[in-house]
Specification:
Length: 178
């Protein structure tokens, strides 16, 4: 008897780190994500083999955070800035994420679908394009207030909220008791 094994999906996730942090920190009550648990959640729930975590720029003194992101299994990406502008410029990574996704598609890198973690409306055209090309899985909003309203027209199969209790309980940072 020849049983054909069902092939697993191979999806990529793109996380807007600033949006993720601000979305959970500004939620009522605020909460924080355990990055290791979140990476496992992405792998188990969405079959994510590669997860890119985008940040605005390298800031001295944040090495522990950068190590934590990488130790959790994320591929850390920083926005390039002119050194004279570091204190002035906003760490806007939206165009970097869009460019990276388009680059992997152009280079025909092998993957099934994209998962975005952000609530930013700047991705709407990209999301529409990915849906048209059967390359979009889901956008995960940090909370209901960080969800750009036009995404709701897509239908709930294309978005979810990390602040939903079922998801939040799987990924929330829990203080270690001594």
């Amino acid at each position: 008897m020849n049983i054909k094994k069902q092939q697993e999906e191979d999806n990529f996730a793109f996380v807007n780190g600033q949006n993720l942090y601000m979305g959970t920190d500004s939620d009522k009550p605020s909460w924080h994500i355990d990055l290791k648990r979140f990476r496992i959640y992405l792998k188990d729930k969405y079959k994510v083999s590669k997860a890119f975590y985008f940040l605005g720029c390298v800031i001295d003194g944040h090495d522990k955070l950068y190590d934590e992101i990488q130790d959790a299994g994320f591929i850390l990406k920083f926005r390039e800035h002119n050194s004279a502008m570091l204190g002035v410029k906003k760490g806007n990574v939206d165009s970097d994420i869009i460019f990276h996704i388009m680059k992997i598609m152009y280079q025909k890198e092998v993957f099934d679908k994209i998962i975005l973690v952000s609530g930013d409306g700047d991705y709407k055209m990209l999301v529409d394009f990915l849906i048209e090309n059967n390359k979009f899985k889901k956008i995960l909003f940090p909370n209901k207030h960080f969800a750009f309203s036009l995404y709701k027209k897509l239908g709930s199969e294309y978005f979810d909220y990390l602040s939903n209790e079922g998801i939040k309980n799987k990924i929330i940072y829990k203080k270690k008791t001594p």
